[in-house]
Amino acid sequence: MAEGRRVLAFDFGASSGRAVVGTFDGCAIRLAEVHRFENVSVRLMGTMYWDILRLFHDVKTGIRKACRTGAVDSLAIDTWGVDFGLLDEEGYLLENPVHYRDRRTEGMVEAVEAVLPREELYALTGNQIMPINTLFQLAALAKKRPELLRQARTLLFMPDLFSYFLCGEKVAEKTIASTSQMMAAGGEVWAKDVLKRLNLPAGILPKLVDPGTELGVLTKELQEELEVPEIKVVTVAGHDTQSAMVAVPTEEEDFLFLSCGTWSLLGTELPRPVINTASAAANITNEGGCGGKTSFLKNIIGLWILQECRRQWIREGKEYSFGELEQMASEAEPFQSFIDPDAPEFVPSGNMPKRIRAYCKRTGQRVPETVGAIVRCIDESLALRYRAAKEELESCLGKTYPCLHMIGGGIQSKLLCQMTANAVERPVVAGPVEATVLGNIALQLLAEGAIQDIQEARRIIKASEAIQTYQPQQTDSWSDQFQKWKEIASC
Active site residue: 58, 78, 102, 240, which one? Predict the structure, then answer.
């Protein structure tokens, strides 16, 4: 019976996480956040780590708080992609997982391509070639820390690592595994030949499972420590983007979406991978989705740039809220300077306003000096980058889309939503903000049998959430600026 189902979703972002209880009454899903926490990386001896023990402490805190509010039928975890932990023969974690923004993968794409050419690697895996991908992280370990790799017996991606801590099962959920560049195109089996050619240990890769797989229950040790009853641990779409896709509020089979957060991911859902000359040239990724679908999408550095700017201003004693930053950007003069959000200098953490000014100076543009001018530069550049990605994707597929579904925390910026509609020259249907959490919860409900399929989940989410549409404005002006942005981005 669907009525009264309560499930617990853990959603980890690159800078924060939260535990949210979803209650389903048979018609709508209600959300109640029970715990929110920071996800702060730790630098030690030149390496950037995730603080996995602190994060697991917050998982336990979230479980305890959720159970205080009522019975919990199941729990599941989604996180960012590509990162992992290594376990030894006894199942102990060998070291804290390393952050994908760590510099250890510098030069590793070129090193891999010397053995396995880019075109062939893309054809075999269908993944966008990015230095952060798991394959290049493993190649870095093999080169720089081979002794650690020799000790490893199991590799677990981040959501699977947390699930292992909770119930003891070692698996790789397919959507998160498909971010690794180590799965065969189509997302059903490991690309073991790729690892063999690179002399990387395929034996550390665990069994692949689908979203909605019941892994077990909380260990007796955790039940006693947290003073909670037995709770099922299930897999959802472990990659947060794929959980968010479940929450796109559309009944259309064919749609264009933009998941807007620390990363921006623009793409669509297809019955099978698309791997051709055009998709390779555009470096568009094929990731495993839910229900046997493939997510054909472009990874774009997103609000990370704004978040890093804000952290720098806080370090300087100016603690602006995101609302204040949006207001200052709306008052700044438009189209004064642009950046390419995917330029290498914007990937690492650090003084982002300084880097933006340096980029604008290097490319012969007006240098943004005020906070508002910098934020407007970021927002306009992101909107124009979205247009470029949309055009690349439509060109690869030979079709156009009538609107863009924009989901995730970034849609809280009405300015960015309107700029995106203007830039892509399509209506932007914005919502829900909590797409990833809603998708996580919906997939748990599907596993419980409370929801029949993803189509029903999307109908329920559409009825449960407020959705806002932004109509494109000043499209001629934005088209002119797009041509200017392309020239600057190619410098």
Answer: 240
Cα Rg of the chain (Å, integer): 22
Q: How far apart are CA 349 and CA 99, in angstroms?
A: 11
Within a domain: 256? yes
Q: Is residue 265 part of a domain?
A: yes
Predicted local distance difference test score (pLDDT) of residue 207? 98
Q: Residue 232 and residue 78: Cα distance in Å, rounded?
A: 16
pTM score:
0.96
Quote the Cα angle for 49-52-58, to 5°: 135
Q: Is 113 exposed, middle or buried (0-12, 13-18, 19+ CB in 10 A)?
A: middle
Q: What is the CATH number of the domain that holds 403?
A: 3.30.420.40
Tokens of 31: 């959300």
| Both structure tokens of 145 | 């820390």
Full domain range(s) for residue 352: 304-379
Q: Are residues 27 and 100 in the same domain?
A: yes
Residue 178's pLDDT is what?
97
Q: Please state, in angstroms and as integers, the Cα–Cα distance from residue 329 to each residue in 48, 294, 332, 362, 467, following that order.
A: 32, 37, 5, 23, 24
Q: Any catalytic annotation for residue 240?
A: yes
* 208 in a structural domain: yes
- Is residue 96 within 8 Å of 51, Cβ to Cβ? yes
What string of H, E and C letters represents the secondary structure of 472-487? CCCHHHHHHHHHHHHH
Unique residue bearing structure tokens 């005020």: 370
Q: Express each pLDDT in 14-58 by its tens digit.
A: 989 999 999 999 999 999 999 999 999 999 999 999 999 999 999
Contact 222, 143 (CB under 8 A): no
CA dist., res. 274 & res. 114, Å (int):
25
